[in-house]
From TrEMBL:
One of its GO terms (biological process) is methylation. InterPro entries: EPHD, FYrich_N, Znf_RING/FYVE/PHD. GO terms for cellular component: MLL3/4 complex. Its main location: nucleus. PANTHER family: HISTONE-LYSINE N-METHYLTRANSFERASE 2C (PTHR45888:SF1), HL01030P-RELATED (PTHR45888). This is [histone H3]-lysine(4) N-methyltransferase. It comes from Oxyruncus cristatus. SMART domains: FYRN. It is found in: Nucleus. It catalyses: L-lysyl(4)-[histone H3] + S-adenosyl-L-methionine = N(6)-methyl-L-lysyl(4)-[histone H3] + S-adenosyl-L-homocysteine + H(+). The keyword S-adenosyl-L-methionine applies. Coiled coil: none annotated. It comes from the Eukaryota.
Length: 400
């Protein structure tokens, strides 16, 4: 006798022919009964079938009889479509016993309210919240920084600091306000009282050269010449960077030379677009950032003297905490008594200084210093100006 194995949904069923023979012997031993008009149903063969899958897809088997499953697993409910699809009766029918693996389910009972809040959702599944941004196809123009700032300002969700005051300092060469780009005109350097020049505008002038200490020489000379030269690109005065080709008169501002695509070289020379070589050059300079210490060489003594000699000053002359107001004057008959081996004491000199208070250890106040004349000798006067107190006047015959 041979055994037959049926396979359905990855599960195996063993059908033995010996069982069929045993059923036939039992049938013969039983006394025969009168035949009824209905066809006698053949005996059933019992087989064990175990599966851990809750959903069965067995359409080729006849309708099976229900059997009470173990208490731990619920009975199987087949879909109605299976009952509708009936097949012809076979000599033997199979009886399937299914063992299901119980699933974790939330327990709902009257004791649920008495449990601590941490165990209330035990056994429940959680879902993750995700955001998906869909950008429509087509031409999409991202908003600029100004539009974003305006939008955030309307929402009032951010705190924006106060705007930085505008820098009104203007370069004497290119006439642009404020510091320039690092890889461009660069920072502003002080040339004289309220006179400023960009570092690269001065450095790339024809007359200017740089010392090993970082001093720029002949900047004032280049400025005087630039006041009479017109730029070939913008047609404004102040151009000082000329083409180094012999007998070429093209001259530019430094910023205009970059815009006109002039070629700069490492030996501090420049060629205009008409005379520059085609293609790239080994000595070509394409980066103009200057991070070393560079300053304009000037005669500070002469500069201070020119400031002092000006009658009407629109600017405040300040050295540290000392603010200069007036220089005063000396007559010929006062020269012998109003000077020492180290200093002059002009009558009418006036300056103010911020220094520590004589009354409070952690405050500052203003000291107004002046020089007057008394009996043909200088009189040094210090007026102490402090808020909340009357002015205190101190006098002496010496500066100390």
């Amino acid at each position: 006798m041979k055994d037959i194995v049926f396979c359905s949904n990855n599960c195996f069923v063993l059908y033995s022919a010996a069982v069929q023979a045993k059923n036939s012997e039992n049938k013969e031993s039983v006394p025969s009964l009168p035949q009824s008009p209905m066809k006698e149903r053949p005996p059933k063969a019992f087989h064990q079938y175990s599966n851990n899958i809750s959903t069965l897809d067995v359409h080729c088997l006849p309708q099976l009889q229900e059997k009470i499953s173990p208490p731990s697993s619920p009975p199987i409910m087949f879909p109605p479509a299976f009952e509708a699809a009936k097949v012809e009766a076979k000599p033997d029918e199979l009886k399937v016993t299914v063992k299901l693996k119980p699933r974790l389910k939330a327990i709902h009972s009257s004791l649920e309210d008495c449990r601590p809040p941490s165990k209330k959702w035990k056994g429940m599944k959680w879902k993750k919240w995700s955001i998906q941004i869909v950008i429509p196809k087509g031409s999409f123009k991202p908003p600029c920084e100004e539009e974003i700032d305006e939008f955030l300002k309307k929402l009032g969700t951010t705190l924006k600091p106060d705007p930085v005051p505008k820098d009104y300092r203007k370069c004497c060469f290119c006439h642009e306000e404020g510091d320039g780009l690092t890889d461009g005109p660069a920072r502003l350097l002080n040339l004289d009282l309220d006179l400023w020049v960009h570092l690269n505008c001065a450095l790339w002038s024809t007359e200017v050269y740089e010392t090993q200490a970082g001093a720029l020489i002949n900047v004032e000379l280049a400025l005087r010449r630039g006041l009479q030269m017109k730029c070939m690109f913008c047609h404004k005065m102040g151009a000082t960077s000329g083409c180094h080709r012999l007998r070429c008169t093209n001259i530019y501002h430094f910023t205009c030379a970059i815009k006109a695509q002039c070629m700069f070289f490492k030996d501090k020379t420049m060629l205009c677009p008409m005379h520059k070589p085609k293609g790239t050059h080994e000595q070509e300079l394409s980066y103009f950032a200057v991070f070393r210490r560079v300053y304009v060489q000037r005669d500070e003594v002469r500069q201070i003297a020119s400031i002092v000699q000006r009658g009407e000053r629109d600017h405040t002359f300040r050295v540290g905490s000392l603010i200069f107001h007036a220089v005063g004057q000396l007559l010929p008959q006062q020269m012998q008594a109003f000077h020492s081996s180290k200093a002059l004491f002009p009558v009418g000199y006036e300056a103010s200084r911020l220094y520590w208070s004589m009354r409070y250890a952690n405050r500052r106040c203003r000291y107004l210093c002046s020089i007057e004349e008394k009996d043909g000798l200088p009189l040094f006067v210090i007026k102490v100006v402090e808020q909340g107190h009357d002015d205190l006047v101190l006098t002496g015959t010496t500066p100390k």
